[in-house]
Design goal:
binds 2'-deoxyadenosine-5'-diphosphate; single chain; alpha+beta; binds magnesium ion
Length: 165
């Protein structure tokens, strides 16, 4: 099935200069990059993204980690699209726990668990279709993405946006 999936190169991935390595690994999937940007993650965005985990003991550490409190304060957000994009990307990322992830997967090769118990697993990838749609709509506007799979509305309102001076 034609799908889109959200990928985040997390702050540890950027601090460790792994962007090139991770994008090279992802290119093995033969999927297309259809959106890409650098994001400074606000607490609101972090909490919304990981909302399903809010009752977990590790939640606050997870929010600090994705906001870049332990690394560079930035994340690279990408949307990849193509046949079975969600599973193809998840497979190459490896398991959530970097110690359990296959050692040739991205998380297995580059991730670690800190002494505080934070899974620094360098990459996020949407887990299923429902998460993918929610996450893509959270991190990107339709204008940021070069191929629509979700329906959009034409905005007739005159919204103030920043423009180059
Ligand atoms: P995934 O990122 O593989 O979709 P998830 O959605 O269950 O995994 O969890 C989101 C993130 O939360 C995960 O990338 C790392 C962190 N996390 C999950 N389980 C954890 C645990 N038991 N201890 C510490 N961090 C955990
Ligand atoms: Mg998940």
């Amino acid at each position: 099935m034609l799908e889109q999936t959200l990928i985040l190169i997390k702050p540890d991935g950027l601090t460790k200069s792994l962007t090139g390595n991770i994008l090279t690994r992802l290119s093995e999937t033969k999927l297309e990059i259809i959106g890409a940007k650098m994001v400074r993650v606000s607490r609101e965005l972090a909490v919304e993204h990981y909302g399903a985990l809010k009752d977990e003991a590790f939640f606050e550490e997870l929010i600090s980690y994705i906001m870049g409190d332990y690394h560079k304060k930035k994340v690279m957000a990408l949307v990849y699209g193509g046949e079975d994009a969600i599973q193809k990307v998840r497979a190459i990322c490896g398991k959530t726990n970097p110690e359990e992830a296959d050692s040739v997967s991205i998380r297995g090769a580059y991730g670690r668990i800190t002494t505080k118990g934070v899974y620094e697993n360098v990459i996020h990838a949407s887990a299923n279709e429902e998460d993918a749609e929610r996450e893509i709509k959270l991190w990107f506007t339709p204008e940021d993405i070069i191929e629509d799979i979700y329906s959009t509305n034409k905005n007739e309102k005159n919204i103030k946006i920043k423009e180059w001076a």
